[in-house]
Protein: NADH:ubiquinone reductase (non-electrogenic)
Organism: Pseudomassariella vexata
Amino acid sequence: PEEQYNPDPHKKTLVILGTGWGSVALLKKLDTENYNVVVVSPRNYFLFTPLLPSCTTGNIEHRSIMEPVRQILRHKKAAVKYYEAEATHIDAERKVIKISDSSEIKGVINETEVPYDMLVIGVGAENATFGIPGVREHSCFLKEIRDAQAIRTKIMDCVETAAFKDQASDEIDRLLHMVVVGGGPTGVEFAGELRDFFDEDIKKLIPDIADRFKVTLVEALPNVLPMFSKQLIDYTESTFKEEHIEIKTKTMVKKVTDKTIEADVTGPDGKKEKITIPYGLLVWATGNALRPIVKDLMSQIPAQKDSRRGLAVNEYLVVQGARDIWAVGDCAVAGYAPTAQVASQEGAFLARLFNNMAKTESLESEIHELSSTLNIKPGNAAEVTQEIEGCERQLRRIKDIKPFHYSHQGSLAYIGSDRAVADVSWFNGNLAFGGNLTYYFWRSAYLSMCFSTRNRVLVALDWVKAKIYGRDVSRE
Ligand code: FAD
Ligand code: NAD
């Protein structure tokens, strides 16, 4: 039988919020026997987000990129407590968090408090809507598994409704117009996957609507993928042209209704023009916004007053102005982009830090104990002094923890028709490449990054399955 969680009153309680990239990287490397570890997250699994766009078309099945948190915790040396709940308030004065069961089934008790000695916040971010009217009501986001499932269902609903007997011609065009707002990597990867789905599967199965399907990517800035090098932006834009994905840059969406988007387009002369675009499916991918729990904590801490994008942290990821609270990933502002790469390196850093802190404390108490035996048994003085010196040497070595340093491995994005773009760090330089070979690099890189061997096998099988049998177009 698995070991049960048994909190030790002599150990500190470390509470970790979230089961995303940051928190799971911390859990993976943390020596759990040093603390009473409690994990709180409304999502009882880790999600491998880089392959989420592939789930929207069924190229990958959603369970293949999910890893149950219970499975992850099972392998830890000392048992960890997990609560499927949302943290709704952090009381930094009393050092307690309020948690609430936000799932459908609730028990008699569905709200309570969890005390902490140390707290790590890894709650990620919400979808940004900038308060644009109609976005929440009418568009799909692409952040969680349920978003990918909703998109998959909606794509097929639009297609089947367009193919309905005697469907009006304008309505066919609207229903088959798939609009993506936001030309960051999420929007670009989704647009590419969508076009593939249509070209490789839907077209064959429903040929009568084949020439009406259209994908448009809308971006407020002058180009898509701003974090990639110029050469790769050009390559992506020309590939999209070949794939018949229309890119509308300098187009800022201002309003969304159930069937149209309204946007301001800035022309070459700087003049603004209003346009209305009818759509069947709208996917909103305009980046991140703060979660309520993060906003709430920031409002309690005067040192966070000027921080806009998240919890400002120092070089050891300590939340500025707070005691015993650390933050990782998309909810923390450490001077890096909100990516999985950054979040997982931050999580792994905190694990090293906490492992060291625990070791330091145990060495210090060992030195204290040895010093006291010196007075009781003076005969062993030389031996004990030697032991104390050994402990002190170890202590000096591990106490010297360097601040967090992010090492950028590069950026990768899939752009459709078996092509990808990559900006990779190479011996202090940068290497930019794109095309079909890059796609195989993209595939192997993501496969190797999957959480577990089980995930890796499932993803590889999904790719083979989709290649042989095509994607499944049944609408769930
Ligand atoms: P998340 O991974 O979002 O995890 C947050 C966790 O906190 C979740 O478990 C959530 O349920 C939980 N939570 C939320 N609210 C609460 C609460 N109140 N209390 C407790 N728990 C809470 N980055 C890359 O580097 N490469 C990529 O290829 C890439 N592809 C991406 C593709 C898509 C479609 C998306 C959406 C993002 C992609 N990213 C990629 C970005 C990457 O996913 C994020 O930067 C990363 O997930 C951030 O990790 P995190 O731990 O901060 O948050
Ligand atoms: P993003 O912030 O990178 O891009 C959002 C885009 O939406 C911006 O270019 C912005 O100009 C545009 N936008 C905002 N408001 C708009 C409006 N009203 N009308 C039109 N356009 C508007 O967001 P993302 O793509 O979701 O990425 C979020 C984070 O996750 C980023 O850090 C990204 O690097 C990371 N990510 C990485 C990968 C990858 O490496 N393959 C994939 C997905 C996400």
